[in-house]
Automatic annotation (TrEMBL), chains A, B:
One of its GO terms (molecular function) is transferase activity. It comes from the Bacteria. NCBIfam families: mdcA. Gene3D superfamilies: Glutaconate Coenzyme A-transferase (3.40.1080.10). It comes from Phascolarctobacterium faecium. SUPFAM superfamilies: NagB/RpiA/CoA transferase-like. This is Malonate decarboxylase subunit alpha. InterPro entries: MadA, NagB/RpiA_transferase-like. The gene is mdcA.
Length: 557, 557
């Protein structure tokens, strides 16, 4: 045998990590502790030009001190970084590009920084790798986007580097595992360094440095919706959803997106849902952040389990006191975990339901606008038909049975289909139409030079749209023409709806592809706020028996 | 506000766990250690009738001592268990049903026990929940299939219950996190109890009891293929795959299924792949167990990274010495993790390629046979188009661009498509045909009363089939008729192939939907074993510079 193996080092990453650790050694005090005042020097010692760097930023928990610190490094020493991180929320996440410290970006969601990303792209200050769903990005951490250095956030640490992430575990395990086991460097900012942790969430062996940050990490009450702001139109759509979808299919396991539409549904379960006799038959198992608007349904005994992506401000005491429902550790506090919650949200639930900004006549929906590169977080992962699913449920089988192109696409095999539901308004605030002939995503793709239009949910994955006009059961359609007609039929007076052919709409109503509130037997006169189990935040506090502690901005009593 | 909340306990699971711990207290020695001789008593103390119980059994690592122990409990005390576990490999996994200890089963893969499951189903000894892919089952651990008691396996433990799982971490983190944070009980069998672990993989806070088992846990060399058994036909298919798919699409990130077909490809990279100038252009990032047949490609500098589901017997020293390629911990040994590898395999790679037993004229493929309930492990999760994917790559975009029904299904949106490739032989051993008019999965669904046929890969997910006759580029087909004709065109003298219309086959060759070895410019006379970079296991050992230590049954020199 002629042996052609090459001669090279096979542990260069390990040696490089050791060299970086040697440069950082002067800043390390007891155990793995580094002083906040030495944070800039630490980053300059362990980060090299061109490194892939992750700053933990997820829906809520932000490694904000380390983000600020990275902005203060000398761009002469640290530059051309490739940021691989799920969420860009803080100004500092973009400042590193302005300062020439970072160059390339791979991410999932950018919220408030979306406009600046688009601007930087145009100005050539930032090179965009791709926009991902959360789980997809975690996957790439183990393939071709492994961070060389991870800057993460935890609640507490001990001096050995063991971390307590508890209620806000979020992305931390996925980031740390990928980084540390590929010989990378993990730096944690923590709110507090203690002698003994309530429990260990991340073993100290996986963490290189711990810094007590001057202030606790930033966290946002992203999932709190004040019931006082729910409209009658949202109540109507909620009633249609419960009767025409939840009840119709027997949806037991599901995820609710963020927003007032799904908050309305949550607050209708103990009233309208109860009246329809659906308790125990729907909504028993959720994948969900701890939404305060879930409290009445939980207290009324609707819910068996909730696994959480992350936490929600003010809900920690309530969640800890409901350990039969939430995933709570031996120490008594919750453990969230976005990777497992998204896995469950992709594969183990029967329905995803959430709001959108725009839907086109093909059923593609998106929250993208022409000049904001925002991403969709976890929505595409939950709002799609997971083709690798092989377990059945009543809801999944029924939706598959109804699929209009099943013979053409599937042949003789029996399969099911995930329910993917979008709640839309024909017109939103400032008369922005909910239905458009072309999604803004097309303009954005052109403006930002993206290879694919940033569509949140694809038309062939979308099974139902609910507007105040009715429900379109899109998956029943037998071709694209029928799908388009069904969408036009519930799109009201938007440009899309105006092209509806009334005869075709009637035909689709006869076929059960479109159902109005009337068709569903819903008494419109009852569709108002009086149906809600809680009318305001104070009601939620009462339902929680005082365990829910809303942030100041939601306390108006 | 009228408050309708119910009055109930909200921490019944926690109280119940405490009561079970109290019953188990007499058997606990120092820290969390229980003697092997008390194992039966421990299980009788902590398991209650009707519990959901997980026995860790995955592709390789088996909690075999605890599986045997569970068979020895008194069925009068412990019965009607609902087993939720990914793999059933050991006889004991089925014995618990025979003995009346367990009743219901949710699983992913059953390999050698597949026939007995089918038998037990018929006899009413076992009630089947569903067959899942691995990642799907882990998702349900966090929704509606959370284990009450988990019986897991680790390499080492300390007396505080901290675990070292190292090379064979596999499913452990997913099982333990779901169980322990829903107030469940975690029992670990370990090969050794030590004072200090090489590193902590699972924190002791998450583990209740540790038992040193009389023998190290059972592990099988599942991914080892002796190059001496690779056939010339497999070499031909491998050359077609490399030229007609890997090179054609520029596949950089991928997974190889188990089997001689993909082992052939691995051994052709340093020879035929090199000759085609593809080094650095294909096969840089893998999701893969540490296949010994990957050694020549790794040593020749083809591979940048490999993340592993689990380990492979004899490969630990080689992997530890290649920390630039594999995910290796600070202690120097690998950490595998099936949950993250499957996540990456679903979302972060461009191609899945593997073998199958049967393909039908619709493109559905399956390894199911009429009287064996076997499941597919991770294949459906990787062998499907992940609809939640939002990042692009050259390969993914090209495959989407070629998709024959894209206008009909997608409308005007640009999208990509995962490559899903099946390697098939028109006739296997004993003349079993690789193409059939109806999959055995249909008979199995009827026999075992399954709601859906256990299809491994669905026709609409499958993009390419390779046989010795040629490659069918199925995704290019514009309708089911064309797809069927393309399949018949490469199905040789099987019943499916005999129905091919030669004119239609020629037309499809003109369209590039079918390509023969000739069409691909492959010199058939070179398609033989001399092309392989290693001809036998000894060659692999030489390539590895003695670091690969094959199990005895593969040492024939």
């Amino acid at each position: 045998m002629e042996l052609k193996g090459i001669t090279r080092e096979w542990d260069s990453l390990k040696k490089d990590a050791a060299a970086r650790a040697a440069s950082a050694a002067p800043y390390v005090k007891e155990g793995k502790i580094v002083d906040a005042k030495d944070a800039v020097a630490l980053l300059e010692a362990v980060i090299k030009p061109g490194d892939k760097v992750n700053i933990e930023g997820n829906n809520q928990k932000q490694a904000d001190f380390l983000a600020k610190t990275l902005c203060q490094v000398d761009p002469g020493k640290v530059h051309d970084l490739h940021m691989v991180q799920s969420v860009l929320t803080l100004p500092e996440h973009l400042d590193v590009f302005e300062k020439g410290i970072a160059k390339k970006l791979d991410m999932s969601f950018s919220g408030p920084q979306a406009g600046r990303i688009a601007e930087f792209l145009k100005e050539g200050k930032l090179e965009l790798g791709a926009i991902h769903t959360y789980l997809e990005l975690y996957g790439r951490y183990f393939v071709d986007l492994t961070p060389r250095v991870a800057l993460i956030a935890a609640t507490k640490a001990d001096r050995h580097g063991n971390l307590f992430t508890g209620f806000s575990t979020e992305d931390t395990p996925a980031i740390v595992e990928a980084t540390k086991f590929r010989q990378g460097i993990v730096i944690a900012q923590v709110n507090e360094i203690v002698d003994e942790l309530p429990r260990v969430d991340i073993p100290g062996d996986w963490v290189d440095y711990v810094i007590q940050s001057p202030k606790p990490f930033y966290i946002e009450p992203l999932f709190t919706r004040d019931p006082a702001l729910i409209t009658d139109a949202q109540v109507l759509k909620g009633m249609m959803a419960i009767k025409g979808i939840y009840g119709e299919y027997g949806i037991k396991s599901l995820n609710h997106g963020i927003g007032f539409d799904t908050a309305a549904i949550e607050l209708l379960l103990p009233t309208y849902g109860e009246e329809l006799g659906l308790k125990g038959k729907i909504c028993t198992n959720f994948i969900l952040n701890p939404h305060p608007s879930m409290i009445p349904a939980i207290e009324s005994g609707w819910v068996e389990s909730i696994h959480c992506f992350g936490g929600e401000l003010g809900m920690d005491e309530y969640v800890a006191a409901r350990s039969d429902i939430f995933f709570v550790g031996p120490d008594g506090s919750m453990r969230s975990n976005r990777a497992f919650s998204q896995t469950a949200g992709h594969y183990a639930i029967d329905m995803f339901i959430g709001g959108t900004l725009q839907i086109d006549p093909y059923g593609n929906s998106s929250t993208a606008t022409a000049n904001r590169v925002a991403g969709f977080g976890g929505a595409p992962n939950m709002g799609c038909d997971p083709k690798g699913r092989r377990h059945s449920s009543e809801a999944w089988l029924k939706c598959g049975e109804e699929y209009g192109v099943k013979e053409a696409m599937w042949g003789p095999v029996h399969r099911g289909k995930r329910l993917v539901v979008q709640l839309a308004e024909t017109f939103r605030e400032k008369l922005a139409p909910g239905f458009v002939e072309e999604l803004d995503a097309f303009a954005l793709a052109k403006n930002a030079n993206l290879p694919i239009e940033p569509v949140m949910i694809y038309g062939d994955d979308l099974t139902h749209i609910i507007t105040e006009e009715g429900i379109a059961y899109l998956h029943k359609c037998r071709n694209m023409e029928e799908r388009t007609a069904a969408i036009r039929g519930i799109a009201g007076f938007t440009e899309v709806g105006m092209k509806a052919d009334p005869k075709e709409t009637l035909r689709l109503r006869d076929l059960g592809v479109i159902k109005t509130a009337d068709d569903l037997g819903i008494d419109m006169s009852r569709a108002n706020r009086s149906m809600l189990a809680a009318k305001n935040v104070h009601d939620l506090v009462v339902w929680s028996k005082g365990l829910y502690n809303p942030p100041a901005k939601f306390r108006n009593w």
